[in-house]
Amino acid sequence: MKSYRAIYWFLVITLLLTGCGIGSEKPVSPADGTFTAVPEPTIAPVDTPTPLSPVGVLLTPPGSDQGLIDELNPIIGSNIRDLGLRYQVLINLSQDDFQYEDYQIVVVLAPFPDLKTLAESAPDTKFLAVGFNDLEPGTNLSVLRSGGGDYDIQGFIGGYIAALITTDWRVGALSVQENPDALAARDGFRTGVKYYCGLCNPKYAPTGINYLYPKYIDLPVDATDSQISANVDFLVDRAVNTYYIVPGVGTQLMYRMLVAYDKNIIGPGSDYQEEYKENWVLSLEYDLIAAFEEFWPQFMEAEGGLEHIPPLLLTDINYDLLSEGKMMIVEKILEEVSAGFIKTSYE
Questions:
Q1: Segment holding 93, helix H or strand E
Q2: If you average pLDDT over residues 115-136, what whole number do you get?
């Protein structure tokens, strides 16, 4: 019996020892094992801002001609972008602004006070002043005038045309006092009339000392409607039949009176209205847009400041009053006087 118990416990112990060995793993040395790679930490990218391109500006200060802005804006914008620059339209620009932007080109419309000072403070910027007649070019400042500087030529052509189309050369001009451009135009008018008809003595009545031509009146700078009416009536009483209206002088009252009296009118294109059409001989004006497009390549190529005056244009021509044949004569005279072959004054 004891022998059976001994055998029983021997078997139990043997089974227990065998069970403990099942499933045991063989130790693995580092040389025999497989490692799982741990990824290196990724460094977060650092944003590097792309440098902004330089800027080209159209500067439109208060008081600028809105019509001119509307026409020049797309032209200048296209030119600026073609150069690879950013384009901005601003109403003001100061010396401090140049600390924050790289302004390479600034086109400025009149009026803008102290533009010369601003240009001098930014010597690396090219400035183009458009419509400034009282500003001189500088080292980095070019000027495209609105037509000032040769009002004598405009007046001369106005006088020549007036004498050319008017019987007995009964012509006159309305100008304004204390304005050098207006007075230059008026003097040019007188010279243009005399260039065509010499003494210009009428052959037919009325004649006499009160009927010598050309006539002109310089109105006060702040002329009232009553003063304008009185002076127009005076010239009408002196049998003036064709009138040259100096730029900046014409008013609606003046033109309506001349139309009512059935008088011929030569004036600036900005004054032309359909209601004056039957009496309007032609307009004398300067095409600033065409002049800008012509001048832009020269401005971009120049290293220093340039000056440009738009050519005088003859528009709104009434061929019932100024025939095509006479117009050809006028164009030839304009070409010669613009070239300096014909003087616009007696001096």
A1: none
A2: 93
3-class DSSP state of 16: helix
DSSP 8-state assignment for residue 58: E
DSSP state of 149: T
120 found inside a domain: yes
Bridge partners of 215, per DSSP, are 172
Q: 138: which DSSP letter? A: B
Which of 87, 118, 144 is the endpoint of a domain? 144
The last residue of one of the domains, among 144, 176, 193, is 144
Q: Which domain holds residue 212?
A: 151-285+312-338
Q: pLDDT digit string (tens) for 50-77?
A: 778 999 999 999 988 888 999 999 999 9
Instruction: Report d(CA 229, CA 253) in Å as an integer.
Output: 8
The CA distance from 147 to 153, in Å, is 10
* DSSP code per residue over 289-321: HHHHHHHHHHHHH-SS--EE-PPEEEES--TTT
The continuous run of DSSP H or E covering 76 comes out as helix 66-82
- Residue in 245, 227, 260 with CA at minimum distance from that of residue 154: 245
Which tokens belong to 239? 């049998």
What residue type is assigned to position 76 of the chain? I
At 10 the pLDDT is 64
pLDDT in tens, 304-327: 899 998 888 899 999 999 999 999
Highest mean pLDDT of the ranges 40-44, 207-211, 342-346: 207-211
Residue type, 280: W
